[in-house]
Amino acid sequence: MRGLAIDLNCDLGEGAGRDNELMPLITSANIACGGHAGDFAIMRATVELAAPHGVAVGAHPSFLDRDHFGRRELDLPADEIRKHVCDQILALRAIGSVRHVKPHGALYNLAARDRGVAQAIVDAIQSVDTKLILYGLSGSELIRVGRERGLKVANEVFADRTYQSDGTLTPRSRPDALVPNLKSAVEQVLHMLEEGVVVATDGSRVPIVADTLCLHGDGPHAVEFAQGITQALRNAGVSIRAFP
Asked: Does residue 233 contact residue 29 with C-beta atoms inside 8 Å?
């Protein structure tokens, strides 16, 4: 697998408490901007934590739904979604440079399949800075809209989430939503990189593009997963660097 490269991104500033352990293991940080978690002080501290490690900073906007950690889909008009995303990106930019944008939780999943929501997010990004990179689920509607509108896009894949036959993530409400252990997560990642496919829960092989790999920071074994996956990638000869 030598010659392959991958960006490792992680959702941080969400109050999980292990950001300082995860930051040295990643190349891109998606920082909560107050919608589902975080505040100005936490954003500033997370940006400052990223700097000495050379980690690229990105905004992680969400529905304004702290009670449900941004994981509840809300039926909002496009203009409202656009404003919320724009405001959250600008909140992080008030602290320092922002290189990319990755929606969070329910907003991310909704934009993966709903063109109108995807367009609202892209509108928000372009109203702030057309040079921002859009992170989205590999092969999703969000990636398609971003590319059509001229944004640089990064197809995101997941080590610790299972997939459906249409390429979407298995809903968290299902018992098989999470990859059960580090060994299975490593196998899934290496398979996606080497063969360009992921095996869905029904056994089908789904084509996938892997530009950036998400390492969730809020799980009980987040650091151990990140360490194990990073070591497995290096052992396989995969370069780890910020996208692109």
From this structure: no
